[in-house]
Specification:
Layout (H helix, E strand, L loop, with lengths): L2 H16 L10 H12 L7 H10 L3 E4 L7 E11 L2 E9 L10 E6 L4 H8 L9 E5 L2 E8 L2 E7 L4
Antiparallel strand pairs: 1-2, 2-3, 3-4, 4-7, 5-6, 6-7
Helix pairs in contact: 2-3
Length: 158
């Protein structure tokens, strides 16, 4: 290769290296809300880091910050409407931090009961008396948790 061609390729490489990398802007609160709702209802699989980043867009109070070795819990300053009902808290469980490697995302309802949420989610009571529905490889469940009705999606169980 000629020295001129070599210099041109080297210069092109330097220009490429010098070009600034622009980070994508954070999603809007509307987009973050929609994607979080989809995650807790088994309609969108997010990584735990993506879930945490979206929750932070809503500017919640972090009850427990999400980190490499911990799960995240977020008290929402403005309710998120899941199935038309207000949610005041979100929780993510990062399966990589536990023994089961199953990610799950939970929304806690501030006023509705489990029978109401199960009906809205169209989840029938199973033989064991629980509200759990297989959604592809995932499980969508409604339960009473810490005195509140909750809906949760556990990903990649099958």
């Amino acid at each position: 290769m000629s020295s001129f061609a070599t210099r041109c390729l080297a210069l092109a490489g330097l220009v490429t290296l010098a070009a600034p990398t622009l980070a994508a802007p954070p999603p809007s609160a509307e987009v973050a809300s929609r994607q979080l709702i989809e995650a807790v209802t088994c309609k969108r699989h997010l990584t735990p880091a993506q879930f945490a980043a979206l929750a932070k867009v809503l500017k919640p109070t972090e009850l427990q910050a999400y980190g490499e070795l911990s799960d995240g819990e977020y008290a929402l300053t403005a309710p998120l409407l899941v199935l038309g009902q207000p949610v005041n808290r979100l929780h993510l469980y990062d399966g990589a931090n536990g023994e089961d490697s199953i990610d799950s995302y939970t929304a806690y309802f501030s006023t509705a009961g489990i029978d109401q949420i199960a009906a809205l989610a169209k989840i029938p009571r199973n033989e064991a008396g629980d509200y759990t529905l297989e959604v592809g490889r995932h499980d969508l469940s409604v339960r009473q948790d810490e005195g509140q009705a909750s809906i949760a999606c556990s990903y990649d169980l099958r």
